[in-house]
Amino acid sequence: MMERDDLALIVAVAEEGSLTRAARRLDWSLNATSRRLARLEEEVGVLLVQRTTRSCALTEPGEACYRQALVVLDQIARLEGTLAEYREPAGTVRVRLPASAVTAELLARFRSLLAHHEDLRVQVSVTRRDLPPTHEADIAVFVGELPDRSGLVARRVRVFRWVCCAAPAYVASRGAPDTVADLATHETLRYRTDAAEDRWVLDHLDGRRESVPVAGSFEADDGRVLAEATYGGLGIGILPEQEVRAGERAGTLVPVLPGWSFAPPPVFLVGPRGRMRHPAVRTVADAMEQAFAATAS
User: Is the dihedral of CA 21, 26, 29, 35 positive or negative?
Assistant: First the structure.
């Protein structure tokens, strides 16, 4: 009889297209993965995976097995989710998110969560925002249009508006732009990617949209670095509206171009199929979703 790990193996091989990547996804050694697959094929009496030196692909029986494995694993996950309702959240939940998502509200939710569940642990890994979600985290925050990643499930969450702002020192020395077009004459703090960020597109509350060229002498590939550069007076930056309001009250930030904001990108909480139903993972995901909603309001 096929075991749950056998089903997980077929799904991993099908979706990763490589025994090496499947082994990494399952946290098994490559030798153990190869041996288990060979044993499984011997037991069922058919070739499930056609191997080459660089990749592997499912045979026709393997494809049929993959489709049924998805159904069975989902049913098992649903059953575990039902039983999990009666268990206290416990264990380590691995969270991967971009630096811009690490807000005071989120940390406050984590603090409350850990205070109420003494056997729960949260392990956070901060990454670049454009890295695709993988199976290496229980929950990943992904910003942007979600790529097709088989075996992963996603929740779309409410997000906050992003607005322009600057440090009082910058405004004192350079002034503040009166119009969106004036941004072209200012130092703007831009996100560094493979393509140059040379234009900003902003939306007004009245429905207008403006696209303006931007430039400056400072850019970075990390959102928190850009935030600190904004506080440090290096130029006009982009921060969540709630953070700008708090900075204005504290005297550390000055809002720039009131009424204008950037269209918020879609944000998703992504996790491996079935893991979101685990009580610990679900509890942490719920807290994260509530933190994003509170920040957006």
Answer: negative
